[in-house]
Amino acid sequence: MTQKERNIIEKFKKKVVNELEVKEFDYEYDNMFECIYLHFPHEEEESIEYSIDQIEIYLDELDSIKFYQDCSKVTTNTITQKVIQISSKSNFYYLLALGLFYKQTPENIYINIVQNPLLIGIGAVKSNNYNDYNPPCSSHLAIEINYPDFDSRLSEEKENELIKIFMFELSHAHNISFEFSTYMLQKEYDFDDAKIDILHSTDFIYNIPLEEYNYGMDLFLNANQKLSPDLQFISYYKIFEYYAPIQAKIEAFESMKLKLSSSKALTHDANFIASIFELAKNYDRSVRDSELIKSLINTAFDLVDLYDDLPQTVKKKLKQNELKYNSKTETKDRIVNELGAILYQTRNSIVHAKSNYDIKGSEIEINDLPELNHFMHKASYSIIRWYSSLPKHLKINA
After folding, report:
1. Could you tell me the maximum CA-CA distance found in the chain, to the nearest angstrom?
2. Strands 141-146 and 177-180, how do they pair?
3. Which of the 8 DSSP states describes residue 155?
4. What is the mean pLDDT of residues 177-199?
5. Residue 249 pLDDT level (bands cut at 50, 70, 90)
6. Which pTM does this prediction carry?
7. CA–CA separation, 66 vs 255, rounded Å?
């Protein structure tokens, strides 16, 4: 190591330890490979490797380093490191090690994916967001954007758009899926939560039988992948759509069976024949998109039992803060109809292009979807078990 190189790394260490108060930071120089191993707390030795040239770039930026309360990124005057999570094929890290995930824009802005993000590591140590199982650097991946100067910096919105454009192309070329993340540690496991999980597991082991397979289980598994709240809602809604025609047919068949068992069935007069047509019209109405899932609500799952899981914004739209088993029948019927409309309009607001969709007023805002998905998760599970419990002669194809 030359004296100049030693001065660079020593100056870097002094800034990190004294000015940024990362007291446990140190380094080791490898003469054979002419690289530096950075030592952060709880990191394995020789796991964080940087060159002198890289250290020098970061050194010049440490005076302007900025941390954010949500722990999603760390910035300087000309660098942004934003935490991401990646799901990909097994060769992703091989390609990453070869430095194949970078791009230069016409404005001379460089964007790439980095392992062991140095600025993120400093942020994690300063905010105490690390432990033995989540080291500050090596447990994270980050998008790094390098600007030619401060004046070239993009707004946060434009910066996120650039990242999405970059990841869009990588997703196409390498079948990579990604999402924004943070370096914030998950809260420590709560003992009360542990007791609930143990009870659920015990109940599963001893009391819950394994049901016969049906396709709705595939839909449920898909809905429980890591998805954005809007896509997760649509995935749960597909479960409603899959089973709703079955329930509509069951109701129509039961109505027809009662009609054909009537004493008037023997006379075949005009009124009786007209009533057959009316039943057929009722069935046609029940399988329209806007009416379809209403047949499941409070039939394939217990709405009273799940009502507390609805977001408060939904209860406000329904003008009903609680629902009980002794609530009036007309109240329950109204809630079934209005909840069905809310779910349907929310689905439409997601799947239709904004330019082709007129707001109806029943839709749920995107911020409330995670809580609504909690309800959809429980309702979908109940619907699948309801179908499994039907006698074979009622398991009618949709």
Report:
1. 109
2. unpaired
3. P
4. 73
5. confident
6. 0.65
7. 68
